[in-house]
Predict the structure.
Amino acid sequence: MPSQCKAFLGRTVMFRRKGFLFRNRIGGVRNGGLELTVQAVHAAMLCHDMMVVSDGMPTSHCGGALYSGGEGGIENDEQGLAMARNLGKRIASLINMQMNRREQIK
């Protein structure tokens, strides 16, 4: 994991100490050789009692991220764009599910 990412995740402890402010938030990241970094980010999210979300079907990976090192940058990362779109749809679906549950509880 890059040191900047580790430092960022380490600094999020203040949100945990102030009552798990990230609790029940949804987050995710991408696959593609990044699995150990992704697992470390997921572990940090789980420490905050967050919900870790994959990008869902049909791609169903560890989330969505785009690769900018190829020719044309992220605009040409078709796999990354598909995963990011799926992740956005999945997060929206989960948010709707949570909101519907809250309405049912009222």
User: Anything to note?
Assistant: Residues 3-105 form one domain. Strands lie at 26-27, 51-52. The CA atoms of residues 32 and 100 lie 34 Å apart. The longest helix spans residues 78-105.
